[in-house]
DNA sequence: GATGAATGAGTGTTCATTCAT
DNA sequence: GATGAATGAACACTCATTCAT
């Protein structure tokens, strides 16, 4: 069955369901989220759900992918046009934390997704890392950062951002990350990427690059 | 009711259940793990489970806390007696990845725990971070690393390790982390912590330290 | 969740469940009555039960209250318009025994309800006694019966009816109470309430009336 | 297996179990009473239960029959040697209410027993009624009470006592029945049995006697 | 498109009973 | 006699999904 909304009414209902699903998934997680809860939150009848989605997993995937695109967009938007790499880092992470504060769903959901929908989970991480890694790659080629492996660095720094966000945005249920923490993280990132450093050997070439 | 095993036979059964639970949780996650699956895996009757555990959540918490202590122990064991901070980092992370390869359960489980058992989830992260942060703190006071905020740095670097481990150990279902990735991560960490660096302002004091 | 049937089909199913539940409760009692038995008896699927009732206790309460209202109605119906008090007694008890023979459920259930649902148990007895006591009260004020405490008398005579019904309707699994027993009971009641009697002090006032 | 206690220790354990069972049955009813609860209350191990009783039903029957004998004894004790029939009634009922206040178990249990153990339930009622009815019979033959059917009257008046006890001893959780209620009931009973009365026809013979 | 009643497989948990020690 | 670990059938209840209206 084709479930694309064919009428404005249908499109509206579908949108209500997606919003409700994000809310419910964020609040109680995938497994505790029942279709009944989602339809009640959306204000539609139970059966209506299946006019728009194949099942629970499909709406989950849709919500995750949607959120994933939106973070990615928010982050690249924020760093676009920023020439200095470190400034771009700052802007990107700030956008990431802001998004986290506004959409705890993504966070909470993605950490559940391992067993629910590994494919979309990986797509999400790959999406973000790809953008980040290519940014690092070009910064490296321009000599703005030191010679790190861009893919490894991208995963590592994304991981750093993830736990910091979990700890100081989600756990604190905060509207925004505390400035001191943000600066602390920036300090670490700056150190990790800083163009000149006496630490570490200088590989100076691409040998052994990951992927 | 007191569920402490009072006989050797009881202790043996309890241990079988814990091993089985770790396995089942790691394979299918908390929600898909049924008590039936666990008892079948353990080779005991369904009812026996309730002789030893209050319920599903209790065995989950026990498994998580147990694994948590074991990683922590493995990591501190590995870095104990290593004088050089960077060497200690290398050893700690190596132990972490080795543990991850051997006990994917911890990883998979912990990322589910947000909605299942937030308390133990936090205890786990706090446990690990505490040890890590105090190591950084004393290294900093000895001038072995630069003046980063130890708590923020600990969370950030643990996050780095977590995603790297997820990406290259779990997703690849590997026995160990690829050397190149490991070195890539070490390179990032070295940069982040390196004692001399031209990057960053030098706070040189404790103002604004987190927590 | 609102479980009111919203369609004729729903109402029909709900009714089938109530009838089945009365039957099952009467046959095996509350604790041996399983939801499976009830739904099988009703010819619907297990899950359907929960579309209409919150749980086992709710359907129990509903059945009890329903039966309670029906006996009360049958009894007051029977004695309505009967001028003579003793005749009214006869009619009321006759209706009571007839109801008992037709709905053993009420009897059997109510005697279980102490631990299952004390509230509805009390509501049932209070319901019946209230009607009975006010009948006695007005008969007394008209001098048709002697000066007994109407509330105490109502409880006492209801108890008399209850055990007689239990002994000669339920235990004998009879369609109706044997005439001789019925007359024997009426004889006792007549004596207890008879307007002229040499027995007993004549309080002649309301002092010490119960409740 | 013969479960008669063969040693003083065994007899003591058995007694502890019986006391515990009465307590537990009275508090939570038959179905909610688990063997574990009973053995815990008795302070013995679970398995020990089965050295003394065949199963849950057996201990239930034992407790009921034991209590039944004890009420009967208390009641006949109280009225023994009382010459006047009405005085004997007063004494018997007083003893009954006192027993009820002290052993709510009997009441609560007996009303459950319909589905648990119909045989002992009937034995209990038969026991009590037999004694009562034969008392009435001989009083009648001596002309102390009027010519009621002794069996029917015994059941009826026992029912009266039962509900009065339920209402004013159990429901009020009282130590004793309120005097006014007791006198109210006595008043009803006196009327029902009083030797001279203008009410009722005088059967004057045994025709149609029940049983 | 929208509705909500119906379905039934599956879950966590309880508990009377057995039995090796 | 006493102990407590082990057993497994049974239960109340949930929920993704279907389908007649």
Automatic annotation (TrEMBL), chains A, B, C, D:
Domain annotation HTH tetR-type: ranges: 11-71
> Per its UniProt record, what Pfam families does this chain match?
TetR_N
Q: Does the keyword DNA-binding apply?
A: yes
Q: Extract the InterPro entries matched here.
A: DNA-bd_HTH_TetR-type_CS, Homeodomain-like_sf, HTH-type_TetR-like_transc_reg, HTH_TetR, Tet_transcr_reg_TetR-rel_C_sf
- Annotation: DNA-binding region: 34-53
Leader sequence segment: none
Which UniProt key words apply to this protein? DNA-binding, Transcription, Transcription regulation
Entry annotated with the keyword DNA-binding:
yes
Q: What is this protein called?
A: TetR/AcrR family transcriptional regulator
Question: What is the native source organism of this protein?
Answer: Ornithinimicrobium faecis
């Amino acid at each position: 069955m084709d479930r694309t909304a064919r009428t404005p009414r249908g499109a509206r209902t579908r949108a209500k369901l997606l919003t409700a699903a994000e809310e419910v998934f964020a609040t109680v997680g995938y497994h505790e989220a029942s279709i009944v809860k989602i339809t009640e939150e959306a204000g539609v009848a139970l059966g209506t759900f299946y006019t728009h989605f194949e099942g629970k997993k499909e709406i989950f995937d849709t919500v995750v992918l949607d959120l994933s695109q939106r973070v990615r967009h928010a982050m690249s938007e924020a760093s676009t046009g920023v020439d200095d790499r470190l400034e771009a880092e700052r802007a990107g992470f700030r956008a990431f934390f802001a998004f986290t504060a506004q959409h705890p769903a993504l966070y909470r959901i993605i950490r559940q997704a391992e067993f629910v929908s590994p494919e979309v989970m990986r797509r999400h991480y790959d999406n973000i890392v790809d953008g980040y890694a290519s940014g690092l790659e070009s910064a490296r080629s321009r000599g703005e950062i030191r010679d790190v492996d861009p893919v490894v660095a991208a995963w590592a720094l994304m991981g750093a951002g993830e736990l910091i966000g979990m700890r100081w945005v989600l756990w604190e249920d905060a509207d925004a990350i505390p400035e001191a923490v943000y600066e602390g993280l920036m300090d670490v990132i700056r150190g990790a990427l800083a163009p000149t450093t006496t630490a570490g050997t200088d590989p100076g070439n691409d040998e052994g690059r990951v992927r």
